[in-house]
Amino acid sequence: MQAAPTLGVLGGMGPAATAHFMKQLAASSEATTDQGHPKIILLSDPSIPDRTQAILRGTYEPLAPIRDGLLTLCGWGADLLAVPCNSAHHFINLVSESIPAKIIDIVEATLNKASATNPEGAWLAATDGTVLGRMYQRRAAIMGYRLILPPDDLQKVIQDAVRAVKGADLETSAIAIKKATTQLWTIEDIAIIQGCTEIPLAYTMAGLPSHRSVSSIDALASACISELKAFSTSEDQQTRSVEYKHSEPETNIH
Fold first, then answer.
1. List of residues 6+ apart from 222 with CB closer than 8 A
2. Is the predicted pLDDT of residue 247 greater than 60, yes or no?
3. More confident residue, 245 or 122
4. Model pTM score
5. DSSP E strand boundaries for the chain
6. Percent of the chain scoring above 90 in pLDDT
7. How much is the average pLDDT of 99-128?
8. How far apart are the C-alpha atoms of 129 and 55, rounded to whole Å?
9. For the residues of 144-164, what is the DSSP string, one character each?
């Protein structure tokens, strides 16, 4: 019997966002028993240096610990990998070829969901580092998806909201994200891509409508469940193929 695939999660960037991601993974699995949920290995490492600050400085302090964390998860038996931090993928893209397991791309998952649910385009609410790193802009351009960046004054408010979540001040973060999103909607009334995993916490706390946003945490959780199912199917097919070959009768040619 083929063992179920294991998802490795490199978290701690930040801890509250990681906890929310784990909750959404459970919700996305649609399991009705404990045994129906995927096997997950979590390595939560909040000591990884600030990704946004490194991108803004043009330095690479987070690169080695992110790579080491992913390799550790592979060593622990992870078949697939996920990192619930958008700005971390700026560094993951530099080392992904050296990682012996597939890394589920949060940017790709989020834009795929956005293009399906909001084909007219969306605002990008993300950290300064994610915006400067252009991960969303590059992928959206390849997809032909219309992605709009907030003006500088509202980008600052969004960054403040992220800092408040990391500082365990959800009330302040909610005020900030509500200010930013409502002002963006007065410019153009389209969905908000929550391109930072802290933003869904602030957005929910603010009581803003879920149907007018695309959460990168929700998109990644859904993509992980889909990838795990696809991985299981692929492994089962390979197993059946091997079993079929082993069960073929020997043919003696005289």
1. 28, 109, 113
2. no
3. 122
4. 0.89
5. 6-11, 39-44, 80-82, 102-104, 122-125, 147-148, 191-194, 213-215
6. 87
7. 98
8. 5
9. T--EEPPPHHHHHHHHHHHHH
